[in-house]
Specification:
Blueprint (H helix, E strand, L loop, with lengths): L3 H32 L8 H23 L4 H23 L8 H24 L5
Helix pairs in contact: 1-2, 1-4, 2-3, 3-4
Length: about 130
């Protein structure tokens, strides 16, 4: 596999991004909502569950960054990250979310594509089984 150090840092970077997003949402959601003139959440426990998942996926990306053979975590990450943007886009389109919320969704979509490229390059580099 070419550029294994590059891929290592892609995964470690995504882990740090996830952790920063989780902490930012945990402590900044109310402030962000006030800044964007949005109503406070009715059920903040759903936000907290989402924050925990963001953080846990960050742990998974850290593990992959330290062991690039952890393909199942990468596949799960692709599924999870690919689903974030359509959900945010839908809720933006129907007026439930401010368009600013599409930014982290777009970041996840980009990383999902990068992770797909990683899987492709990783599997191309494997010797063929005979």
């Amino acid at each position: 596999m070419k550029n294994s150090m590059t891929w290592k840092y892609v995964f470690l970077s995504k882990a740090v991004i996830n952790w920063a997003e989780a902490v930012g949402l945990l402590f900044g959601d109310q402030w962000i909502r006030q800044l964007l003139n949005l109503k406070p959440l009715v059920n903040p426990e759903y936000l907290h569950m989402f924050i925990v998942l963001i953080f846990i996926f960050g742990i998974g990306y850290w593990w992959v960054g330290n062991d690039l053979s952890r393909q199942d975590i990468v596949k799960l990450g692709i599924c999870a990250q690919s689903s974030v943007f359509p959900v945010l886009a839908y809720h933006t389109a129907i007026g439930n979310l401010h368009p600013l919320y599409l930014v982290p969704g777009a970041i996840d979509l980009v990383f999902s594509i990068l992770f797909g490229l990683f899987l492709y390059s990783y599997n191309e580099a494997k010797p063929a089984l005979e």
